[in-house]
Amino acid sequence: MFARLELTRMAQGLAAHAGTRLGVIAQNIANADTPGYRTRDIADFATTYAATAEQMRATRPGHLQTGTGAETTESFASGGDAAPNGNDVSLELEMVKAASTRQEHEMALAIYRATSGVIRASLGSRG
Predict the structure, then answer these.
(1) Where are the strands (E) in 7-117, listed by range?
(2) Is 40 within 8 Å of 27 (Cβ atoms)?
(3) pTM for this one?
């Protein structure tokens, strides 16, 4: 029952997206001094979630809009300014993206905790 809730499915997707994006950010930081390396990123979660909306159940006409079908795990070049060696990684920007991604992950965990609490309360459990 718990795994089938749409809210928990969305939170699971958000947590997975945050983990994938954090991995891409870590690769960017690791290659900050690599000549010719171009910064990579993945599509934001809203785009990803909209792309999977067609798999969700609509409760009324027009409830869900279909997405563009964008692939969430595919990374793309961010297109920043390149250094003389061809590298365009900005450590400051990567740290900002990492902090934002961490907040997304913490939000997913908060949704899990809140949903778990509601389910426990509805079942009459106190633990």
Answers:
(1) 40-42, 75-77
(2) yes
(3) 0.70
